[in-house]
Design brief:
Helix content: 25-40%
Radius of gyration: 24 Å
Number of helices: 15
Number of strands: 21
Structural class: alpha/beta
Strand content: 25-35%
Distance between the termini: 63 Å
């Protein structure tokens, strides 16, 4: 008899509640989880207050990579003579570039809506969701003007731009990751606050579109989480395209003036000022947890606003789970999507999947940086005895043939086991090439697997093999 009870659907077990599961937020984890569980017979609701698809679809991955592709076309056109091609003039059209990106966004969002609306057992609830209370067997949540009750809840509310408390910044109509796509005016001189991944990608994009660009960063280098040699290489590459950097510099005040903006700067050298036409704020992300009513269920977010979870994505409140950027840790679309697989495993699977995983990522500058695992510094700090291999792209045959010789491949391996601990691929299509390392690391194989394989010639992948062969 016990076995027959286990076979009953979640709907039968929680018949008095409206839903077996309520997902708050339609980012990369929520929709696929909702669809998968609905197909299994769960009664599922998905609440979204604004746009389906989260940051990736609406203003992050999808549109940024689309406009970066347009900017690269302009960049290659300007380099036409290097390839024996005469192109009289290159005229980037920011309005057309943004329209193309928005078209791709609309297609993605429409396809997602169709998938959700067409799924039996799944209800799409428009409106802001906020916990009201815990009740027997589940939770009471207000979504817009309606009250819903669910046995379990997944929080997938993502993050938004973190705006620094700089005096006068609120008097300026600045751009952020959320609104840049709706601003068709090409800045004459764009000042970007923040030298992290978003700031660097946007710096190169606007520079290639024709803007002057200055990046202001309080740290001693850009992309500060990377190995110093990687950060320095990216900086040198962007400086070669006339992107300016003000490092170890903070903004003390912002004010309108001279038809644009004036920033008062502070550094060890004293105070200074910088004038520009527009400002883009790229100083980090803030979790969307401040208006979820978490206190009503006895949950308190961490000081940084994230929701603490265990390796199975369970929060401190039984029956509430968190996924995507809001749960802290790596804030990438692909980790959010993998969170869906973890939650599906925990809720309706064998519970085997956890956040103990290898997470690669990329910076979509040109050339791209593909990264996975430990940096050399992190490996040494962890007390590992390591071997390091490095190979310059300028020595790779394919890189020479396609005119993409900037960058290098660096790999760090454990000296005892010969297993790869981490890698950085700064190269054309570096975000693709890094997966050679990702596959071997997931297989827990030795670096010799790459070294002794046969790679197609000529390819950029041979540079990865050359870096592994250079391990010392």
């Amino acid at each position: 008899m016990k076995g027959s009870r286990r076979k009953k659907s979640p709907a039968t077990r929680s018949a008095r509640l409206d839903y077996d599961l309520l997902v708050i937020g339609a980012g990369q984890a929520g929709p696929p989880l909702a669809i998968a569980l609905a197909k299994k017979g769960w009664r599922v609701a998905l609440a979204e207050r604004k746009l389906l698809g989260g940051s990736c679809v609406n203003f992050g991955c999808t549109p940024t990579k689309a406009v970066i592709a347009s900017a690269r076309v302009a960049w290659l056109a300007r380099r036409g003579r290097e390839f024996g091609i005469r192109i009289p003039s290159v005229e980037p059209d920011l309005v057309a570039v943004l329209e193309r990106a928005r078209g791709i966004v609309t297609q993605s969002r429409t396809a997602l809506r169709e998938a959700l609306v067409g799924e039996k057992n799944l209800t799409l609830l428009p409106g802001h969701a906020r916990f009201e209370s815990r009740e027997k067997g589940g939770f009471r949540v207000r979504v817009g003007d309606d009250i819903v009750r669910a046995a379990q809840v997944v929080i997938d509310t993502g993050t938004r731009s973190r705006i620094p408390a700089v005096p006068g910044l609120d008097t300026v109509d600045f751009s952020t990751a959320e609104n840049w796509i709706d601003r068709p005016e090409l800045p004459d001189h764009l000042v970007i606050l923040g030298g992290g991944y978003t700031g660097l990608e946007m710096a190169q994009f606007y520079r290639r579109m024709g803007s002057r660009v200055t990046v202001v960063e309080p740290s001693s280098d850009i992309a500060a989480r990377e190995d110093p040699e990687v950060s320095q290489a990216i900086r040198t590459l962007l400086e070669s395209e006339d992107v300016a950097f003000r490092l170890k510099t903070s903004v003390a005040r912002v004010e309108r003036g001279g038809g644009g903006v004036r920033l008062s700067l502070k550094s060890k050298g004293g105070r200074d000022s910088l004038s520009g036409s527009h400002v883009f704020v790229a100083t980090g992300r803030k979790p969307n947890t401040d208006d979820l009513g978490l206190e009503a269920i006895g949950m308190e977010p961490a000081p940084d606003g994230t929701i603490g979870v265990n390796p199975r994505l369970a929060t401190s409140v039984r029956g509430v789970w968190a996924a995507g950027d809001v749960r802290g840790g790596p804030m990438f679309t692909h980790t959010a999507w993998d969170d869906y697989r973890i939650l599906l495993s925990q809720l309706a699977g064998d519970r085997s999947r956890t956040t103990e995983r290898i997470v690669p990522y990329a910076i979509y500058t040109d050339p791209q940086l593909g990264r996975v695992g430990m940096t050399e510094a992190q490996a040494r700090q962890a007390g590992r005895k390591v071997r390091v291999g490095r190979f310059e792209l300028r020595k790779n045959g394919k890189a020479k043939e396609i005119g993409e010789t900037e960058g290098f491949v660096k790999v760090v391996a454990d000296a005892r086991s010969d297993r790869i601990l981490g890698a950085a691929v700064l190269a054309s299509e570096g975000a693709e090439l890094v997966h050679l390392f990702v596959a071997v690391m997931n297989a827990r194989a030795r670096s010799a697997l790459i070294r002794d394989a046969i790679h197609v010639h000529p390819t950029l992948a041979e540079a990865v093999q050359s870096a592994v062969s250079a391990l010392r």
